[in-house]
Amino acid sequence: MAAPEERGAGGAAEEAFLTFYSEVKQIEKRDSVLTSKNQIDRLTRPGSSYFNLNPFEVLQMDPEATDEEIKKRFRQVFDFCI
């Protein structure tokens, strides 16, 4: 690998990508030990943010919404994708 001063703009982008990729792999490794229930609880806990990919925030719904309300909202939001 070239020294930082020899890499230029392309090298900086590659370094940023490798840093990002390394962080993703660390998160995957950390989360791989979680059960399905643990994953769902992590994603849907109140106050979770974009980093946790909370589906209730994506649908802009209250976590206490009924299954029927969630299905209806999901269809409203994602119907255009089909």
Task: Tell me the span between the first and last alpha carbons.
Answer: 45 Å
Q: Strand content of the residues, in percent?
A: under 5%
Instruction: Work out the helix count.
Output: 4
> Helix- and strand-based class?
mainly alpha
Indicate the radius of gyration in whole angstroms. 19 Å
Number of strands: 0
Mean residue pLDDT: 80
H/E topology pattern: HHHH
Helix content: 55-70%
Global outline: extended
User: How does the major sheet shape up?
Assistant: none
* Poorly predicted tracts of residues: none
Protein name: DnaJ heat shock protein family (Hsp40) member C8
InterPro entries: DNAJC8, J_dom_sf
Organism: Pavo cristatus (Indian peafowl)
Task: Please explain how this structure is put together.
This protein has a domain at 34-82. It is extended, with a radius of gyration of 19 Å. With 82 residues, it is an all-alpha fold. The chain starts with a helix and ends with a helix. The chain is 66% helix and 0% strand. The protein is built from 4 helices and no strands. The longest helix is centred in the first third of the chain and has 28 residues, at 4-31. The mean pLDDT is 80.
Structural key phrases:
extended, 82 residues, mainly alpha, 66% helix, 0% strand, 4 helices
Write the layout of secondary structure elements.
Layout: H1 4-31, H2 36-44, H3 55-59, H4 67-78
Give a short overview.
This protein is an all-alpha fold.
